[in-house]
């Protein structure tokens, strides 16, 4: 979202293949005080507009019967990538179809302001705009739409499973010591989709193993390339608990590391979900990973009942504190106490402690003051493609020398 916009300024996208109707709807919106109206003459153009402007768009008027990519597919794609956008469904087709599509969109997490049958009036459009303004639409709604198993299969077949990287910085001096590898899926219309769009379906449908292998292969290949270029970064890679049921996993990761010239000590395997049903097979796999020299991290510590149980049972070397504790600790004494206790516990267990979600120097200063080891978050950089990492780390070093100087001296 463009933070420079006023709170009452609205941006709307109108997707309609009829020039006359599209121009009429756009004029109605302008008369209702909509600040900016983006036009799309068909479904494919609508998806391009969503890809290019989706973060700024507040609401979308979408016709259903468009040539090529129809409005139903457009709405599903919007729900996948930008679920904050409120939608109005309109068409000259059967009213029951309109209601069914509206129910589909709501089920995928979109806010449906209303449905309009053609023709409709300026008064009807004005009523929907007023409803939107009065609702205080939350642009941070959780995404609930997901890809289908077949769509995930196509992404795997077409090598559209991508890996982005987010820097991890040492708090004592601010030096970037590593990156976390984060899975993404590249969509031909919408660009890059986050894991909420596909990981749950992949896990439930038996496709997680293929995705994990793809991420491991790409991340370790990239770690080797960085090392050969003189950028020796520690790389953290997420695993689901289901991965630990694979008895061959330690050997596979070991082979990938050797073939890419990466030593196991430079790789951390992060366990990403809360679970308490540790089986002997999972303990076997985790222990063999550690025996081979790979580090193990417990991710999102503090968010589940099983955190302490996992710390006792698995040979972890790193503890990552969930961002929820970090982002509000400067305002809440109870969360600060949780942070201090977690960091102290990690150090007593000889673990490296990493704080996630560090977004500003105030949080950095607080964490440094209570002896956290490493930080990860938007303060240093968001997740990004591998090719942007070297320049990003260079810019981070310059920031440390200027705006970060006071934090480093504290």
Summarize the structure.
The chain has 410 residues and is an alpha/beta fold. Helices cover 43% and strands 20% of the residues.
Please describe what this structure looks like.
- The structure is a single chain.
- This protein is α/β, with parallel strands linked by helices.
- The protein is 43% helix and 20% strand.
- The protein has helices spanning 19-31, 43-53, 71-81, 95-107, 122-135, 149-157, 199-204, 208-228, 249-259, 280-291, 307-313, 323-326, 333-348, 361-369, 389-401, 405-409, and strands at 11-15, 36-40, 59-63, 86-91, 111-117, 161-170, 176-187, 191-193, 234-239, 267-271, 295-301, 318-321, 352-356, 374-376.
- Strands 6-7-9-10-11-12-13-14 form an 8-stranded mixed beta barrel, surrounded by 5 helices. Strands 2-1-3-4-5 form a 5-stranded parallel sheet, with helices on both faces.
- α9 packs parallel to α10.
- It is globular, with a radius of gyration of 24 Å.
- Mean pLDDT is 89; it is low at 138-143.
């Amino acid at each position: 979202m463009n933070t420079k916009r006023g709170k009452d300024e609205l941006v709307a996208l109108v997707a309609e293949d009829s020039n006359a109707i599209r121009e009429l709807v756009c004029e109605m919106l302008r008369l209702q005080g909509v600040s900016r109206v983006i036009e799309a003459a068909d479904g494919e153009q609508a998806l391009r507009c969503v890809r290019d402007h989706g973060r700024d768009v507040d609401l979308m008027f979408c016709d259903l019967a468009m040539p090529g990519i129809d409005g139903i597919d457009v709405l599903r794609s919007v729900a996948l990538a930008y679920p904050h956008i409120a939608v109005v469904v309109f068409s000259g087709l059967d009213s029951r179809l309109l209601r069914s599509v509206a129910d589909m969109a709501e089920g995928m997490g979109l806010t449906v302001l209303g449905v309009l049958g053609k023709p409709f009036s300026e008064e009807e459009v004005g009523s929907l705009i007023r409803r939107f303004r009065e609702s205080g639409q939350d642009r941070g709604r959780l995404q609930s739409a997901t890809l289908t198993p077949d769509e995930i299969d196509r992404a795997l077949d077409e090598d559209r499973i991508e890996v982005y990287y987010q820097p991890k910085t040492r708090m004592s001096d601010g030096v970037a010591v590593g990156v976390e590898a984060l899975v993404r899926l590249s969509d031909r219309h919408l660009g890059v989709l986050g894991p909420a769009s596909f990981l749950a379906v992949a896990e439930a449908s038996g496709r997680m193993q293929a995705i994990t292998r793809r991420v491991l292969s790409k991340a370790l290949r990239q770690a080797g390339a960085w090392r050969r270029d003189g950028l020796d970064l520690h790389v953290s890679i997420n695993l689901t608990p289901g991965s630990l049921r694979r008895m061959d996993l330690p050997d596979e990761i070991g082979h990938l590391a050797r073939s890419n010239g990466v030593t196991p000590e430079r790789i951390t395997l992060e366990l990403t979900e809360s679970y308490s049903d540790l089986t002997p097979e999972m303990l076997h796999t985790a222990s063999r990973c550690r025996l081979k020299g790979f580090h193990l991290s417990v991710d999102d510590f503090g968010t589940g009942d099983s955190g302490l149980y996992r710390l006792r049972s698995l040979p972890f070397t790193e503890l990552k504190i969930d961002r929820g504790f970090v982002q509000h600790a400067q305002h809440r004494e109870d969360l600060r106490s949780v942070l201090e206790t977690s960091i102290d516990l990690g150090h007593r267990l000889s673990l490296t402690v990493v704080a996630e979600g560090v977004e500003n120097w105030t949080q950095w200063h607080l964490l440094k003051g209570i002896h956290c080891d490493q930080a990860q978050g938007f303060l240093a950089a968001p997740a990004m493609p591998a090719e942007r990492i070297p320049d990003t780390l260079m810019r981070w070093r310059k920031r440390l020398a200027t705006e970060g100087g006071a934090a480093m001296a504290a």
